[in-house]
Amino acid sequence: xxxxxxxxxxxxxxxxxxxxxxxxxxxxxxxxxxxxxxxxxxxxxxxxxxxxxxxxxxxxxxxxxxxxxxxxxxxxxxxxxxxxxxxxxxxxxxxxxxxxxxxxxxxxxxxxxxxxxxxxxxxxxxxxxxxxxxxxxxxxxxxxxxxxxxxxxxxxxxxxxxxxxxxxxxxxxxxxxxxxxxxxxxxxxxxxxxxxxxxxxxxxxxxxxxxxxxxxxxxxxxxxxxxxxxxxxxxxxxxxxxxxxxxxxxxxxxxxxxxxxxxxxxxxxxxxxxxxxxxxxxxxxxxxxxxxxxxxxxxxxxxxxxxxxxxxxxxxxxxxxxxxxx
Length: 326
Prior knowledge:
There is one protein chain. This protein is α+β, with helices and mostly antiparallel strands. Helix content is 41%, strand content 12%. It has helices at residues 11-19, 62-77, 117-134, 147-161, 166-186, 236-250, 264-281, 287-291, 298-315, and strands at residues 30-31, 38-43, 49-54, 94-96, 99-105, 110-111, 193-194, 204-207, 210-213, 221-222. The strands form three sheets. Strands 1-2-3-5-4 form a five-stranded antiparallel beta sheet, with no helix packed on it. The chain has a three-stranded antiparallel beta sheet with strand order 6-8-9, with helices on one face. Helix 3 (117-134) packs across helix 6 and helix 4 packs antiparallel against helix 5 (166-186). The longest helix has 21 residues, at 166-186. The N and C termini lie far apart (61 Å).
């Protein structure tokens, strides 16, 4: 099966797959905002609302996906609020005609406010609890965050895409190589743990029951700071206050290695480059040119040249430090 193809995933196919595990939709399928996988919300004939997720073929294998599921079950057992897949006859991962899929309860809520210090304090406590559970054992199948995949492989996807115009390719690749070299020299971690992996505001909901983590699809091994730095916003002074708030609450439940503060800018650079590489790698999927048309425009690459230059400068600044204790 072509790794970029969801062509077989017609509405009838999706309904047949859901019904194969004994759930019978009575509503239509509402597509949710997901490009890596295909995700749909529906109401079952039992009156409950569900979300079904079809995994992109050849991205994760069944062992890797099951390990993500098992991690969410561990978190649920530890009363860490993460949306876990539903089980049917003891299984959470299902296969239908070549597609792997899973089912979740539909959870509603409002978006997490990254500039709200009270919410950041609550988040810090929950990430501390999440990491305390995560430290119990490593992943056996899921990969660790690494510079080969996030930087070098991403660069190759960009080169192979042919989307960067010749007039901008030299300038773009020059600053890209400079950032890659600096990050490769700076990114070193010896204390990798299981992570949420993609802990940004879009993957945190504020529900009636409180904060809730969703979408552990990018869960990997890596440094603890990976699950904290994406919450930072604003200028340096604001980020110091946000970080101090989160880590102070985090350390109520889990020890934090303050040396990892030096990894924030390398991780930010890795995310920037990995994202561009991801778009290039997925360009054969018709959903990507349709929804990310700006990715093939010169204006986008001009903006990325500037963004990489700014990130190159940020990498050379002293790392963020927590507020002094008096």
